[in-house]
Design a protein that fits this description.
- The structure is a single chain.
- The chain has helices at residues 6-12, 17-28, 32-44, 77-82, 106-113, 125-131; strands at 14-16, 50-52, 93-94, 118-119, 121-124.
- It has 133 residues and is an alpha+beta fold.
- It has one domain (8-54, 70-131).
């Protein structure tokens, strides 16, 4: 058996957006809309863990006056049902807006939306296989 580095082992323990959708279509015979709904519900209920492949690590070890926002994918089911997929990389989805829609002006929303980017969510393989064997 060839040696696997820690990074390779960790990468193998996660699956991508397209892989989880394909798995649910194959195993459960769901269309994409239902698969997205089920994924969103599992994340909302805390039984499926998601993280960004390029997540920002918190460099501050102790609590202090400077706190970076948590860099985790949203837990709301609606986001996963409606997220826009990158046409060039189907594993990447548009990150959520960094504001509450009703609390900012259209001009501010448009400016902030320009900074949004496509990011690759990763899901724990063991949790996916436990939920949908």
């Amino acid at each position: 058996m060839p040696y696997q580095s820690k990074a390779e082992r960790e990468a193998a323990s996660y699956i991508t957006w397209t892989e989880i959708l394909a798995h649910l279509r194959r195993v459960e015979q769901w269309d994409e809309s239902e698969a997205r709904r089920q994924i969103g519900n599992a994340i909302t209920n805390g039984v499926l863990f998601a993280r960004w492949a390029d997540e920002r690590k918190n460099v501050f070890k102790s609590p202090g006056p400077i706190q970076l926002p948590v860099d985790k994918p949203p837990r709301g089911a609606q986001y996963w049902q409606e997220c826009k997929v990158d046409c060039e990389n189907p594993d990447a989805v548009m990150e959520p807006p960094p504001y509450a829609r009703g609390l900012v002006s259209r001009r501010t929303a448009a400016r902030l939306d320009k900074k949004r980017r496509f990011r690759k969510p990763m899901f724990r393989r063991d949790q996916v296989l436990q939920l949908w064997p």
